[in-house]
UniProtKB/TrEMBL annotation:
Top-rank taxon: Bacteria
SUPFAM superfamilies: Nucleotide-binding domain (SSF51971)
Origin organism lineage: Bacteria, Bacillati, Actinomycetota, Actinomycetes, Bifidobacteriales
Organism of derivation: Aeriscardovia aeriphila
Name the record gives this protein: NAD(P)-binding Rossmann-like domain-containing protein
Gene Ontology molecular function terms on file: flavin adenine dinucleotide binding; oxidoreductase activity; UDP-galactopyranose mutase activity
Any one cellular-component term (Gene Ontology): cytosol
Stored InterPro entries: Amino_oxidase, FAD/NAD-bd_sf
Domain Amine oxidase: residue ranges: 15-486
Length: 533
């Protein structure tokens, strides 16, 4: 047999592992020699699951739902949907749409759970539905006068449109200036460290385009006439979707399983393999050089290269070779901004938040915990951006889901700033103080254990040299056998399913010989891909 077609994949996150799996499946291992180079010891990137003393943390929260049927089917192939009630389903006698012949979560780990989605907003010491809805509770919390002011502000924005040339105007056009100032302005600045007027409207077009007051009202009206389930949610904006799938042991479980399958099919997956140099010539990438944990450098040649490494790092790797990138391209890449991320996990005896709003929604815990997956902290008086309750994602993330509550506090930060540089104990104490002020817990004595996780380059940002990214994309595409995929590989705020789709498109191009890479870059730019936020 002739030599196999060599494909080198940089990055072992969702995009990189999806590409490897797609190349090797269905007999592809007879044709392709696939090597994945992962710079860290773990798979899944930001979609990994962090293990701490019997408890597991989901970094950022990952709902498994996609408007791309390929992705939904792919997930089911890796982790089949549950065919029997999970621990909390049984304990709470909770109805669940079981899959005939599916695995029993109580008997096996390789299973995908079906979860109910609930998120709320914390603002001014009140909880609001997420997304904001015009319910009696919302009007009561805001007050009649402020509600009327917000309503007239929205009507004014329907008539007097601002140019969609920055994120501030984008929000005002869809929600009115009053709701923008209450719920979007401060939270966006907390998230990105920049005022919304400094951020490109591209971010809103990608994340929020389909969501507006009218979309919320339309969805609420439809719910009066139909039940919402995974089978009829395809045309519902994703922020309004009420059911999602979730791996029993967190999102990292899926990517650890994929890595195992890739290895079984003959793929080579190397960890602690940091790509340091990109060698190019004659319009193609010739080879990459990676450094292992012992400092040894190895050159790896290939016919095609798929990269999910941050564009900044990719261009710096070009610059270490004999054929560096043009200076203007390097300047664009180096100037692309990111937002870093810190999660502080607190293992608590109980929460102070009461379940009064959900009398008919039983939950685990002693006393019962609120059923939220996420609580968005849009009150400007707090640094924490979002609160996760891991018990409600999967009871199997928590060592003792009946007696403890495992929560994750998400902080948006910048590598090297004061918050990033806090010691573990300082970060723990800061998080506890915020939870006491929010009345989530009563005192420091409620906290049994904690864990902090730092995540670099978690969110690609849409300001600074981002305005010139099209020039950089054109230069990258000039290398015929280089495919940039994934969130950081494209500097595009992709969700997990979007990152997977970019990899699938790249693999399709390699297999068919398609030279245009427009299909790879256009994932999550068309409306059908939008994951509204």
């Amino acid at each position: 047999m002739a030599d196999k077609h060599r494909v080198v994949i940089i990055g072992g996150g969702p995009a990189g592992l999806t590409a490897a799996y797609e190349l090797l499946r269905d007999g592809g291992n007879e044709k392709y020699d696939v090597t994945v180079l992962e710079a860290t010891k773990q798979f899944g990137g930001i979609s990994r699951t962090v293990k701490h003393d019997g408890n597991r943390m989901d970094i950022g929260g990952h709902r498994f739902f996609s408007k791309d049927d390929r992705i939904m089917q792919w997930w089911k192939e890796i982790l089949p949907l549950q065919g029997a009630p999970s621990y909390d389903d049984k304990k709470l006698n909770r109805p669940v749409n079981l899959t005939e012949g599916g695995p029993d979560p109580e008997q096996t780990d390789r299973v995908m759970l079906k979860r109910h989605r609930l998120s709320r907003i914390f603002w001014n010491h009140h909880f609001f539905s997420y997304p904001i809805s015009l319910s009696g509770d919302t009007i009561k919390a805001m007050g009649f006068g402020l509600t009327m002011k917000a309503g007239f502000s929205y009507l004014w924005s329907c008539v007097h449109k601002l140019p969609d040339d920055n994120l501030e105007n984008f929000y005002i056009n869809r929600f009115g200036r009053v709701l923008y100032s209450l719920f979007f302005e401060g939270y966006t600045e907390k998230l990105w460290g920049r005022h919304p007027r400094e951020i490109s409207a591209d971010w809103g077009a990608q994340r929020v385009k389909g969501l507006s007051i009218m979309a919320v009202l339309k969805n609420a009206f439809k719910k009066l006439f139909r039940s919402t389930n995974s089978g009829n949610q395809k045309n519902v904006e994703t922020s309004l979707i009420e059911e999602f799938w979730y791996p029993k042991l967190g999102p990292g479980q899926l990517w650890e399983t994929v890595e195992s399958e890739v290895t079984k099919m003959g793929g080579h997956v190397l960890t602690d393999a940091l790509v340091t140099e990109i060698n190019s010539g004659e319009g193609k990438i010739q080879a990459v050089t990676y450094r292992d944990s012992e400092g040894k450098e190895t050159r790896l040649e290939g016919e095609d290269f798929i990269s999910s490494m941050p564009l900044k790092d990719l261009l710096e790797a070009f610059d270490r070779s004999d054929n560096p990138a043009p200076q203007d391209m390097t300047d664009i890449a180096v100037g692309l901004p990111y937002r870093d991320f810190v999660t502080v996990g607190l293992l608590c005896k109980k929460l102070k938040i009461v379940n009064d709003d959900f009398i008919n929604t039983p939950t685990l815990g002693n006393p019962p915990i609120v059923p939220d997956n996420w609580i968005y902290v849009q009150d400007p008086g707090y640094k924490v951006g979002r609160l996760q309750i891991f018990n409600n994602w999967s009871p199997y993330l928590v060592k003792d889901p009946d007696e403890t509550v495992w929560i994750g506090l998400e902080y948006f930060t910048k590598e090297g700033d004061d918050f990033w540089n806090l010691t573990d104990e300082q970060a723990r104490d800061f998080a506890i103080r915020e939870m006491i002020r929010m009345q989530v817990i009563s005192s420091k004595d409620d906290v049994i254990d904690f864990h902090r996780e730092r995540v670099k380059k978690a969110y690609p940002a849409y300001f600074d040299t981002y305005k010139d990214i099209d020039q950089l994309i054109a230069w990258l595409d000039s290398w015929g056998n280089l495919y940039c995929v994934g969130r950081n590989g494209q500097h595009h705020y992709n969700n997990q399913d979007h990152s997977m789709a970019t990899a699938m498109e790249a693999v399709s191009n390699i297999k068919t010989g398609r030279t245009s890479k427009k299909n790879v870059w256009s994932v999550n730019t068309e409306k059908s891909y939008h994951e509204s936020k």
